[in-house]
Structure to design on (906 residues):
C-alpha cells in the first residue's frame, strides 16, 4: 500500500508490511531473555493467576518461618536456626518447589514440541540448556535467600553496635553461600530429571522420588558403617552432598564428618555438578526435533 | 543469487535410510512448492536448510550462506512454521509471539511492536489476547505463521501450512501466503501434498521422490498449453461432434468433453460458429493445459536421472 | 463378492446430550465410489461409524442391504472399514497382518483370502516386509487389504488420503475406482476437496450434521439457480463484448480485469446459448470461456454458507 497525499494535506498512511531495519542483539541477549522468561515463569509472573498460587505459597511459608525466627531473635537474642542452617530447614519446601517448577521450565517445551521453534532460531541448544539451568538455580536461590534476608535485616537492626551488625552480615553471607550451594546442586539435578520427561506429572514424581528416596540410602550406611564407606555414603543423596559441602566450607554442620573426609565432598560436589550440567547439555544436543 | 542451491546433496541416516540422494538444484526467490517425499525426505530437507542436520555428502547454500558453517546467520534470516502442533496452550498468543521475537534477537520494544504487527498481518485481532489453548486449528496455524514472520525473515519455510484447515481456512491461508510472497517480498517454501495448491500459488516446484529429485522447474513451464482446445456443451454433444468433423476439424472425445486440435487461429471462430448455428449451450472453451499432477501420474518406472535444474 | 449391496440411511440422527452430530440424514449409496465431504467436525466419522455398526442412531435407521447395522454382527460379513487413525503393528509383515485379519474373520481359507486381498491392492511383492518399513501409502493399502479379506460388498474408509503424497494418492484413487468398478459400494470421507474431485464426481456433502447436497458436484452447481454462474472470458475485445453482454437480461453483471472479463449470469441456459451468438455478431473472437465457480471448492463454499 503506497501513501496517498492530496494537496490539502489529507493522507492515507501506509500500514503495509514493514521490514525490520533495527538491531539484532545476538546470542547473549537471547539467552538472557530466555533466562528472565524462565525465572519469571517460575514465580508465575506473566502467567495466569492460578500459576502464581503455588510458588507464592512456598515463598509465604518460608517467609512466615523467617519472620518467626526474626521475632524470636529480637525478643530473646537467640537464633532458633542459624544462617547457614536455614537452608536445611527449607529443604522440603525447596524439593516441592523444584518438583513443580523444573518441569514447568523444561517438560512443557518438550511436551508441546516447542523446541523446533527455539532451535530454528539463532539460539544454540547449549544456550537453551544453560539459560534454563540459570533460571532454576536463581529461582531456588531467591526462594530461600529472600526470607533469610528478612532474618538478617531484623537481626542487624536489633544489634547494638557496628561490629555486631558486621557479624550479622558475615553470617548472612555465609547463609547465602549455603543457599547458593543448595540451589546449584538441587536445581541442576531436578532440571536434568525434568528434561528427560515430557509429562510434567512424571517429572514431578521422579524428582520427588530421587530426592527423598536417596536420603535414607545415604544416611543408613553413614549411621551404621565405620570407615570410608560411612563417611562417604552421604554423597549419594543430594541433601547429603550439601551437608558434607557445608562442613567442607565452614567446618561445622549436620553431617558429622571426620575432618579428613570433608574435602571429598568439596571435590565430589564439583564433579557432580559438572556431570549433571554436561548431561543436561548433551540431552539438548541430542534431542530430536 | 539463487535462493536455495544444493549440489549432490545426500543424507543417509544410520540404520540404512537414505532420505536424500544426490540432489542438485537451484531455485530463484519467489514462492516455491516442495512436493512429494512423504516422511523422511521433506523434513530432512528442512532441517538441513536450517542447519539442524549436516548432509552426509554434497553441499547446500541458503540465501548465499552455508548452513553447516553459518547456521546462526541462516536461522536469523529464515522463519520456520512446523507441521505439527508446537504451541504452548497456556500462553497468550500475543505474549508467545513477542517471546519468540525476543528469541530471535529483537530488543524488547521492537519485539512487542513487530509481534503485534505480525499478528495483524496474519489476521488475528482480539483473539490474540486469549490463551492459545482455546484456539481453532486455523487460528493456531496463523499463530505459527506469525512467529515465523515476526523477525522479518528473508525466507519462510512453511511445512504443510493448510494442514487440518477446512476449505475456507485453506483458502485464507493460501491467500495470505501469496500476499507474503508478492507484497511483502519474502520468499516462501511451501511443503504440501496438494498439487492444486502448488498450481495456485507457487512460481516454482521442487518434486522429490524416494530421495531423488524428480523435477525442479517453474510452474508455468509445467502448465503450458497443448495445441488442443477443450470444448464442452451441456447438451447436443453428438450433434456438435458431427458438425465439427463436417467442417474438417480433427477431434477426440473425453467423457463429456471434446478435444479439438488447434490448427489455426480461426479454429476458435469455427467452433463458436458451429455452436451458435446449432443453438447449443456453450459451457467451456479453453486451451488444454498440462497439470502438475502429470508428473506423478506415471507408473513406477519413472526415476528421473538427477540433473541440475536451474529455475 | 456376491451381489452389490446398498447402504441406506433413513432420517438418521445422532446426538450426544445437546450436541447433534448427525441431523436427519437420508441417503442411499449404491455400487461405485462416493465421496463423503464436509468440514472437520461435520459428522462424517459419526456417520461412518453408524454405517459400520459401531454406533446406534439416536433416531432413524441405518441399513445395509436392508438389514440394520447396529447390534448385527452378520453385517460384518459384507462390510469392511478402514478407520482414520489406526496404528498397525510394525513388527508384522504385510502378509502376516492381512492373514491375521482373514483368520479373525473366521474364513474357511484364510491364506487364500489373504493372497487374493493382497493381489487386489497390488501388494504381493511387498508383503514379505515388515509394516514398519512401509511408506504411509503402503501401510494404508495394507489396511485396505486387511479390510477386504472377506470380500465385502461394502467398504468404508475414513480420511484414507490423509497425509499421502500425490503419487500415493493417485494409486489409492485408482485402487478405489477399480474396486468400485467391480460392483462394490465404496464410501470414503474427506475434508480435502482436491482429493475428492479426482476420484469421483459423486459426493455427499455434510455440513454441521445435515446433508447439504448429493450427486455429481457439477450438476449440484447447476441446481443452484439462485446463484448467478460466474464465467471468465478472454477475447479479442473484452470491453466491447462486456457491453454487448450486459444488454442481455440473462447477465446480471460484468467486471473487467487486466486480462479477462468476468460475467455473472443469472440465467445459465440463456447465457450459454447467447454468448457464441453475441460474440459472433460483434466480430469478436473468444479464446477462453471457463466457468469459474464450478469447482468442488466453490460448490462446497456455497453449500457451507447456505
Amino acid at each position: 500500500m503506497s501513501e496517498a497525499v492530496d494537496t490539502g494535506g489529507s493522507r492515507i498512511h501506509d500500514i503495509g508490511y514493514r521490514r525490520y531495519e533495527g538491531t539484532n542483539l545476538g546470542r547473549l541477549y537471547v539467552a538472557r531473555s530466555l533466562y528472565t522468561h524462565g525465572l519469571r515463569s517460575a514465580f508465575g509472573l506473566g502467567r495466569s493467576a492460578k500459576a502464581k498460587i503455588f510458588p507464592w505459597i512456598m515463598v509465604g511459608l518460608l517467609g512466615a518461618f523467617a519472620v518467626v525466627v526474626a521475632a524470636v531473635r529480637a525478643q530473646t537474642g537467640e537464633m532458633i536456626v542459624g544462617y547457614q542452617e536455614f537452608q536445611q530447614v527449607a529443604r522440603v519446601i525447596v524439593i516441592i518447589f523444584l518438583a513443580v517448577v523444573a518441569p514447568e521450565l523444561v517438560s512443557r517445551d518438550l511436551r508441546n514440541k516447542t523446541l523446533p521453534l527455539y532451535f530454528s532460531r539463532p539460539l544454540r541448544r547449549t544456550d537453551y540448556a544453560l539459560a534454563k539451568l540459570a533460571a532454576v538455580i536463581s529461582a531456588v536461590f531467591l526462594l530461600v535467600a529472600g526470607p533469610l534476608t528478612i532474618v538478617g535485616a531484623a537481626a542487624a537492626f536489633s544489634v547494638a553496635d557496628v561490629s555486631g551488625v558486621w557479624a550479622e552480615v558475615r553470617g548472612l553471607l555465609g547463609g547465602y553461600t549455603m543457599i547458593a550451594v543448595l540451589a546449584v546442586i538441587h536445581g541442576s539435578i531436578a532440571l536434568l530429571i525434568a528434561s528427560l520427561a515430557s509429562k510434567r506429572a512424571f517429572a514431578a514424581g521422579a524428582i520427588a522420588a530421587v530426592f527423598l528416596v536417596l536420603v535414607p540410602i545415604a544416611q543408613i550406611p553413614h549411621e551404621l558403617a565405620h570407615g570410608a564407606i560411612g563417611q562417604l555414603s552421604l554423597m549419594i543423596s543430594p541433601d547429603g552432598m550439601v551437608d558434607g559441602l557445608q562442613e567442607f566450607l565452614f567446618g561445622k554442620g549436620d553431617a558429622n564428618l571426620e575432618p579428613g573426609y570433608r574435602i571429598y565432598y568439596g571435590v565430589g560436589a564439583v564433579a557432580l555438578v559438572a556431570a549433571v550440567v554436561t548431561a543436561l547439555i548433551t540431552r539438548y544436543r541430542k534431542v530430536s526435533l | 543469487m539463487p535462493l536455495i542451491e544444493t549440489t549432490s546433496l545426500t543424507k543417509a541416516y544410520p540404520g540404512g535410510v537414505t532420505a536424500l540422494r544426490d540432489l542438485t538444484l537451484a531455485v530463484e526467490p519467489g514462492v516455491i512448492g516442495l512436493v512429494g517425499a512423504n516422511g523422511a525426505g521433506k523434513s530432512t530437507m528442512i532441517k538441513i536448510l536450517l542447519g539442524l542436520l549436516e548432509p552426509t555428502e554434497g553441499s547446500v547454500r541458503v540465501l548465499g550462506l552455508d548452513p553447516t558453517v553459518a547456521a546462526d546467520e541462516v536461522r536469523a534470516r529464515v522463519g520456520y512454521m512446523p507441521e505439527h502442533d508446537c504451541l504452548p496452550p497456556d500462553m497468550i498468543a500475543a505474549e508467545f509471539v513477542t517471546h519468540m521475537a525476543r528469541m530471535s534477537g529483537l530488543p524488547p520494544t521492537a519485539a512487542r511492536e513487530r509481534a503485534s504487527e505480525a499478528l495483524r498481518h496474519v489476521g488475528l485481532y482480539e483473539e490474540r489476547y486469549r490463551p492459545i489453548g482455546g484456539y481453532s486449528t486455523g487460528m493456531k496455524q496463523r499463530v505459527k505463521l506469525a512467529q515465523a514472520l515476526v523477525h522479518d525473515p528473508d525466507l519462510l519455510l512453511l511445512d504443510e501450512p493448510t494442514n487440518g484447515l477446512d476449505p475456507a481456512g485453506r483458502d485464507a491461508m493460501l491467500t495470505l501466503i501469496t500476499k507474503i510472497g508478492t507484497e511483502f517480498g519474502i520468499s516462501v517454501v511451501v511443503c504440501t501434498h496438494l498439487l492444486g495448491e502448488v498450481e495456485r500459488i507457487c512460481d516454482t516446484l521442487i518434486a522429490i521422490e524416494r530421495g531423488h529429485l524428480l523435477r525442479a522447474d517453474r510452474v508455468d513451464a509445467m502448465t503450458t498449453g497443448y495445441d488442443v482446445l477443450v470444448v464442452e456443451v451441456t447438451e447436443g454433444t453428438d450433434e456438435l461432434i458431427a458438425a465439427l468433423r463436417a467442417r474438417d476439424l480433427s477431434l477426440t472425445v473425453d467423457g463429456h468433453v471434446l478435444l479439438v486440435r488447434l490448427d489455426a487461429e480461426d479454429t476458435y471462430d469455427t467452433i463458436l460458429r458451429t455452436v451458435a448455428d446449432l443453438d447449443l449451450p456453450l459451457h467451456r472453451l479453453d486451451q488444454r493445459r498440462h497439470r502438475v499432477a502429470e508428473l506423478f501420474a506415471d507408473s513406477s518406472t519413472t526415476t528421473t536421472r538427477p540433473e541440475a535444474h536451474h529455475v | 463378492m456376491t451381489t452389490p449391496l446398498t447402504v441406506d440411511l433413513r432420517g438418521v440422527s445422532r446426538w450426544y446430550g445437546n450436541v447433534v452430530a448427525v441431523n436427519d440424514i437420508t441417503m442411499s449409496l449404491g455400487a461405485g465410489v462416493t465421496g463423503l465431504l464436509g468440514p472437520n467436525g461435520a459428522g462424517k466419522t459419526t456417520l461412518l461409524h453408524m454405517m459400520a455398526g459401531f454406533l446406534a442412531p439416536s433416531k432413524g435407521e441405518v441399513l445395509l442391504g436392508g438389514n440394520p447395522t447396529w447390534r448385527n454382527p452378520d453385517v460384518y460379513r459384507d462390510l469392511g472399514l478402514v478407520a482414520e487413525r489406526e496404528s498397525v503393528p510394525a513388527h508384522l509383515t504385510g502378509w502376516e497382518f492381512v492373514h491375521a485379519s482373514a483368520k479373525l474373520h473366521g474364513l474357511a481359507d484364510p491364506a487364500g483370502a489373504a493372497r487374493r486381498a493382497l493381489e487386489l491392492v497390488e501388494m504381493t511383492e511387498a508383503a514379505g516386509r515388515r509394516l514398519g518399513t512401509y511408506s504411509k501409502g503402503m501401510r494404508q493399502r495394507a489396511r485396505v487389504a486387511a479390510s477386504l479379506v472377506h470380500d465385502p460388498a461394502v467398504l468404508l474408509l475414513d480420511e484414507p488420503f490423509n497425509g499421502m503424497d500425490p503419487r500415493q494418492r493417485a494409486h489409492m484413487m485408482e485402487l478405489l475406482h477399480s474396486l468400485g468398478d467391480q460392483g462394490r459400494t465404496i464410501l470414503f470421507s474427506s475434508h480435502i476437496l482436491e482429493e475428492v474431485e479426482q476420484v469421483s464426481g459423486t459426493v455427499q456433502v455434510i455440513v454441521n450434521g445435515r446433508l447439504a447436497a448429493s450427486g455429481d458436484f457439477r450438476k449440484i452447481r447447476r441446481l443452484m439457480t439462485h446463484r448467478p454462474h460466474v464465467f471468465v472470458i478472454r477475447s479479442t475485445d473484452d470491453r466491447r463484448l462486456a457491453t454487448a453482454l450486459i444488454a442481455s437480461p440473462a447477465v446480471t453483471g460484468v467486471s473487467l480485469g487486466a486480462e479477462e472479463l468476468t460475467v455473472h449470469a443469472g440465467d445459465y441456459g440463456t447465457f450459454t446459448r447467447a454468448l457464441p451468438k453475441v460474440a459472433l455478431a460483434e466480430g469478436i473472437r473468444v479464446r477462453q470461456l471457463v466457468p469459474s465457480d464450478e469447482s468442488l471448492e466453490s460448490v462446497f463454499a456455497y453449500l457451507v454458507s447456505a
Notes: Chain B has a mean pLDDT of 87.
